[in-house]
Amino acid sequence: MAGHSKWSNIKHRKQRQDKKRAKLFSKLVKEIIVEARKNPDPDDNPTLASVIERARDADMPKENIQRALKKAQGKLEGQDVQSIVYEGYGPAGVALMIKAETDNRNRTSTQLKNIFDSHGGELGSEGCVRWIFTRQGVITVDSSSLNGVDDEEFQLQAIEAGVQDIEEKDSQIKMYCEPDDLREVAGQIEQLVGSVDSELVMNPQKYVEGDGSTKENVQSLIDELEENQDVFSIFHNYKPLL
Question: Which helix (H) or strand (E) holds 72?
């Protein structure tokens, strides 16, 4: 029985890993399609190049990446993937913006509404929480990629490239810029350090603070939203009390 129990545990662990891997692949494929529709040339689209690099790091088969690129260019018959932003309120009035990549808008809307309802929240109408957030471009690099470049000199060059603010945490350097300048600024930073991750984010201008049950309820809602196959990214204004 002990051996059987060990086998069951291994089997269940593998199933969880496979499910997580499939979910990651699905999201990466959708992201590749969305970015490739903007500009299919990775050499001229640093965001697309970054997504492809992340897909390779995740061991996504080359065929999957090429298929996604072809689908974005209309060279394959496939599902029409749309980028949609949903807005709503969670526990304690926490504001959430959810970016989804979906081939079925009705399905995704229904699923997200049910998730909000089950956590005492409400999926709202367009614009209901957008005023709380500011759209920004963010470029992330690993500090190890500086390759001996003086940190102060790097920051000066980043500012000259158009970076407005810089945050350093652990081994990551996050640089913020105007959203419309993201592609150009990311390209210049890439010339300094090599590969970068770049994306558009929604930064909250006001926060809802809380701990205990509030923290648990908010995190539970976010966790379930992240498990949805169509959800690409989540922005919120919850700040845990220290």
Answer: helix 62-72
Model's pTM, two decimal places?
0.71
- Convert the pLDDT of each residue in 11-69 to its tens digit: 667 777 777 787 788 888 888 888 888 888 988 888 888 899 999 999 999 999 998 88
Q: How far apart are CA 40 and CA 70, in angstroms?
A: 9
Q: Which two tokens stand for residue 108?
A: 């995704």
Closest CA to 136 of 100, 108, 178, 167: 178
CATH of span 2-72: 1.10.10.200
Which H or E run contains 67?
helix 62-72
Q: What is the domain partition of the chain in residue ranges?
A: 2-72, 80-242
Q: Are 36 and 68 in contact (CB under 8 A)?
A: yes
Tokens 């089950």 belong to residue = 118
Task: Take residue 20 and report the two structure tokens written for it.
Answer: 């997580």
CATH number of 80-242: 3.30.70.980
